[in-house]
Each structure stands twice: as structure tokens, then as C-alpha cells.
Amino acid sequence: MEHDIGLWAIPIAILGGAIRVSTPFLFVSLGEVLTERSGRINLGLEGTLVFGAMAGYATAVVTGSAWAGVIVAALSGSLFGLLHGLICSLPKVNDIAIGIAMMLFGTGLAFYFGKPFIQPVAPDLPAIPLGFWSDLPQLRAALEVNVLFLIGIVLALGMAWMFRATRVGLIIRVVGDSTDAARAMGLRPALIRTLATATGGAFAGVGGAYLSLYYPGSWNEGISSGQGLMAVALVIFARWNPIACFGAALLFGGAGALGPALQSVGVTQGYYLFYAAPYVLTLGVLIAISSPNRAMTGAPGELSITK
């Protein structure tokens, strides 16, 4: 039986696309929230995302297990974050410059080691059919949700609770707001920032594994399309709030799904212009938050971009 739902196909396609496209944004932005709340900015997460995608895909090809790929992607991301954190702990080192260097380093390594894995096919991550109750194939496809998306929601809620109600969250916030206050409390800011950066890198690595093992579900050198860098703007837009990051990730994901949604309903002219929607949204967000009164509202005091 054919189901013609007319123009309703567009919002349904955008909904499904938002869920699929938002997951890497969510993981990278949560990792960057954790890093920035400790007082350090990591622009290298784009390289971590790409390397995580390659490492996860290669591991899944070799082992036959997509979840092994996710674990290796997280470990590789944590190693990149650890290296970034250790370098930034040295005196007179600029976080932003090191982040750019790590971005180039990560993408370069991924392209070098990933060439043998462009053709082989890896197993996909599982998805949960939340639209089983519907007779519409479009809605069932839109509500086929990957497990990592649900894990990302739990992580966002857990991180928000951690910052608000736990000793670990308090320590991270104190270190991010004032190095002097943290030292007065007997804390070690450099160590805490390094651990936060390593954990944030692990999150970004998982986001990369999602790209290569589920959507789009293959490894190639153009897999990221700048999502790691856009996630940094997303964090500022979300005011360093993990739950707001989830909403912002869905917004960015919906923008990324706009072009494919129009194409799916038969729009054949001009739809490709809407593929630029995430980049236009990123530019708009940066302009909207760049006013002197709003730019750094809620930012941790030790961030490089606030000084």
C-alpha cells in the first residue's frame, strides 16, 4: 500500500534527519562543555572527531564488532585529549594555537592510516525502531533511533546533574572560574584540566565513530564536514549548559537535514543550497552572540577566549 502524506513528508524527514545528524554534534559539544567548564578551550576536536571515525571504522572492519569500534574511538579520542592537555599545561602555551595544531595532526593521521579502510565494509551500530506503532514507512524511518543518540541524552542529563550537585562538578567549575581560588583550595588545576580535556576528547571520538559506523556509515576523508568546529560555536550558543547543548544539537541537526528532506519530496532545483544551512546557522549564531553584552555571558573565567 502506498502512503502519500504530501507536505507532511518534509517535517517528518527533518525530524528523522535532526535525530541522525545531531548525534555527533551532541557528543562533541558535551566533550567541549566539559573541557571549557574546566577553563580550557579545545579547537582540536575536529581532528579528534575525524580520527575517531577512522579508528572506530577500522576496528569494526578488523574485529567485526561495531561496539569495539566505539570503544577504540573513545580511547583514541582520550589520547588526543590527553596529549592536548599535557601540552597546554606547559608554561606560555596558547590553548587555541595548540588546538589548531591538534586538529591538523588528527585529520592528517586519520587520512594516512585510513586509506586502506575506504573500500571495506564495517558492521553498523544498532538502531531502535521507536516508530513501530506507525503504519507510515516515512515515520518509522524517521523514528529509527541509534543507541548512541539515547546514550547522548543520558550523558547530557548526567553532566548537568554533575555540575549542579556533585563534588566533582564543583571542582571542575572552581578550576574553570579561577585558578587562584582552586589552588587556595588545595586543588591542582593543570591536572584537572588535563583530565577534563582527555574525557572531552573521548566524547568527540565516540561522535566520530557514530559518523563512520551509522550515519552516513562509511569511512572517507570528507566525513566530518567541519562538525567538530561547529560544535564549539554550539557550546557558546548553549551557554556551556549540557542540556541546552542537546537542544542546540537538534537545531543544528535539523539544519543539516533540510537539504536531504527537500530532495526526498521531489524538490529538484535549488535544494542543494540548503546543504549550506548548518554553516549559515553557525555564522548566524556567532554574529548573534558576539555583542559585547552577550558574548561571554556564563563563560568560565579562565577560558582563553575571555581574556
CATH fold call:
ABC transporter involved in vitamin B12 uptake, BtuC
- Give the low-confidence spans: none
Mean pLDDT: 89
Structural class: mainly alpha
SSE order, as H and E? HHHHEHEHHHHHHH
Specify the oligomeric state.
Answer: single chain
- Any idea of the CATH class? Mainly Alpha
Please state how the strands of the largest beta sheet are arranged side by side: 1-2
Outline, from the CA principal axes? globular
Overall number of structural domains: 1
Give the radius of gyration.
Answer: 20 Å
CATH architecture term: Orthogonal Bundle
Query: Biggest sheet: strands, sense, closure?
Result: 2 strands, antiparallel
User: Fraction of residues in helices?
Assistant: 55-70%
Number of helices: 12
The number of strands is: 2
Tell me about this structure:
With 307 residues, the chain is mainly alpha-helical. The chain contains twelve helices and two strands. It has helices at 9-37, 45-63, 66-88, 95-114, 137-142, 147-165, 167-177, 179-184, 189-213, 227-237, 242-264, 277-288; strands at 127-129, 144-146. The chain has a two-stranded antiparallel ribbon. Helix 6 runs antiparallel to helix 11 (242-264) and helix 10 (227-237) packs parallel to helix 12 (277-288). The mean pLDDT is 89.
